[in-house]
Amino acid sequence: MTDEPVLPPLREVIAQHGLAARKSLGQNFLLDINLTRRIARSSGTLAGVTVVEIGPGPGGLTRALLLEGAGKVIAVEKDERCIAALEELGSVFPGQLEIISGDATKLDLSTRIEGPARIVANLPYNVSTVLLVGWLGAESWPPWWDSLTLMFQREVAERIVAAPHSKVYGRLSILSQWRSEPRILFDVDRRAFTPPPKITSSVVHIVPQPTPAGIRFKDLERVTAAAFGQRRKMLRSSLKSLTPEPEALLSAAGIDPTSRAEDVPVEGFLALTRAFSEASSEPGPPDRDRGSR
Ligand code: SAM
């Protein structure tokens, strides 16, 4: 085994580059290398793998990914103050760290990645669900990423993996489960972060599955938004924001019109989305968009 490079303590990197955490950027840094290496490893064996990291900040998780053997890390950071610190890290791992200075919510990463890649990140909480829904709704499927290993606030993680009949089962659960398999790997105590956030976080692992036939993601988003927009109402009432004839739609999907959104499983929402797409005039997605693995 080759010796690992010696890196300066992260606290020094943060002090040297004046990287006081900014709340507006969702900055809660992880400084414990044992923890960041555990997160890196939880995405699977990293040897030779290309990893996309959103929000590397001062580079705690980034250095863990590289030390765990990632072939390449492509790191997207919005805070320009962090770039010099990341470049210093890159000089220790020549050719292995590509830094993209920019806003991840505005970049189409699929056009920049060659070959298989994983996304591993301690996400900024203020844009975490926007980024997740963007990745899960990718037009081309299987997507450009092989898996997502992401840190969320615990309550968001619970919504992602929730089953029907639970109070936290909702739109995010369906968008996360309709063609992916999410699971919570482990929790991370709030005190592991600098500064500590108010609540516990969780690492979630998501693996893409085959796309169910005939589903237009935009329609699934509309149907779930209408159904859970008024989650306590019966669907025959809450879906009025979607269509003037909710009962016809529910009947076509084989769903009891008196049921509530939180009692309908993912398959029910898929049937409802198909019925909605059929009832609206536009044709469904062409076959080539229905990649499977
Ligand atoms: N990866 C570091 C760690 O684990 O210690 C920092 C994680 S911190 C929770 C989130 C990081 O995302 C910050 O560095 C922040 O500047 C960055 N960030 C916030 N919004 C962003 C965006 N829209 N695009 C890219 N990076 C963003």
Structure, explained:
This protein is an alpha/beta fold and 293 residues long. It has 2 domains: 10-208, Vaccinia Virus protein VP39 (Rossmann fold); 217-281, Helicase, Ruva Protein, domain 3. The protein has helices spanning 10-16, 33-41, 60-67, 83-92, 128-136, 154-161, 171-177, 217-229, 235-238, 246-253, 266-279; strands at residues 29-30, 50-54, 72-77, 97-101, 117-122, 145-153, 180-188, 193-194, 201-208. It has a 7-stranded mixed beta sheet with strand order 4-3-2-5-6-9-7, with helices on both faces. The chain has a two-stranded antiparallel sheet with strand order 1-8. β5, α5 (128-136) and β6 form a beta-alpha-beta unit. α2 (33-41) crosses α3 and α10 (246-253) packs across α11 (266-279). The radius of gyration is 21 Å and the shape is elongated. It binds S-adenosylmethionine (SAM). S-adenosylmethionine (SAM) binds next to β1, α3 and β3. S-adenosylmethionine is lined by residues 25-30, 54-57, 60-61, 76-79, 82, 103-105, 122, 124, 127.
Primary descriptors:
alpha/beta, Helicase, Ruva Protein, domain 3, two-stranded antiparallel ribbon, 7-stranded mixed beta sheet, single chain, 293 residues, 11 helices, binds S-adenosylmethionine, Rossmann fold
Overall geometry: elongated
**Bound ligands:** S-adenosylmethionine
Order of strands across the main sheet: 4-3-2-5-6-9-7
- List SSEs in N-to-C order: HEHEHEHEEHEHHEEEHHHH
- Radius of gyration equals 21 Å
CATH class identity of the largest domain: Alpha Beta
Helicity range of the residues? 25-40%
Distance between the termini: 36 Å
Average pLDDT, all residues: 94
Number of discrete helical segments:
11
Structural class based on helices, strands and sheet pairing: alpha/beta
How many independent structural domains? 2
Going by CATH, the architecture of the largest domain would be 3-Layer(aba) Sandwich
**Proportion of residues in β-strands:** 15-25%
Count of individual beta strands: 9
Tell me about the largest β-sheet: 7 strands, mixed
Low-confidence sequence ranges = 287-293
Task: Tell me the CATH superfamily of the largest domain.
Answer: Vaccinia Virus protein VP39
The CATH topology name of the largest domain reads Rossmann fold
